[in-house]
Amino acid sequence: MMQRLRNVLPVPVMLVAIGTLACALGRAPMHAGAQGEDPAEPVEPIEPDEPIELFDGESLDGWAGDTALFEAEDGVLRCTGEGRGILKTEQSYTGYILTLEWRWPADDNARVTTGDAGVFLHVGPGQGVNIWPQCIEVQLEHGNAGDFWLVGVALTPFDADQPQTSGRVMRDPAAQENEAGQWNTLSVLCDGGYIEVQINGEPANAGFDAARTQGPIALQSEGDAIEYRNIQLAPLE
Length: 237
Description:
Layout: H1 5-8, H2 11-18, E1 23-25, E2 52-53, E3 63-65, E4 70-73, E5 76-79, E6 84-89, E7 96-103, E8 118-121, E9 127-129, E10 132-133, E11 135-139, E12 148-151, E13 156-157, E14 167-169, E15 184-191, E16 194-199, E17 202-208, E18 218-222, E19 226-234
Antiparallel strand pairs: 1-14, 2-19, 3-6, 4-5, 5-19, 6-18, 7-15, 7-19, 8-11, 8-18, 9-10, 11-12, 12-14, 13-17, 15-16, 16-17
């Protein structure tokens, strides 16, 4: 089970445990006033007290949004890559460990093309950047999986003293994806304002004092085909 480093270790020890991360402030515009909890949350969040299967392996039951961009078959949830949008859970969640597997699939000629996609945490009702809702994105772009992108939601990177309100928070470069075409595992612990990411079992990123601590979970379509399976929530210990 993932360890909540921010809660149990002082900052210097946590830096050693996770590694050295470089934080790059982005310049993406942010919707004014979209950094915190919205008083008009549409759904009361669930805090899991037992495992929850978010994907049943054969349908999009429990998901909403741009469903035309996603399809389910044989235990795999596939983003077709034929447009931009999101598939988000109908329910809102807080206080959980999210795990899923993803890979960049081969085309009809057995060629694997990597691309860009992400997992959105704590999706809000407000506008974030461009077409995307306010959220904290865990990047899945090949070569950068584990980066945070702050989309209208503030978060303090683990090695910083001040919150970052937009842009990219780079992962620990020691965290690596598998070769293109192979399955990878993403684990994300969300405990109040603390968020910790692991890629294939290795610490990749962390932040605290997130301005949003609840909301739906979403899968992003950036125009590239990507596959998911075994999408689950587990309760915090």
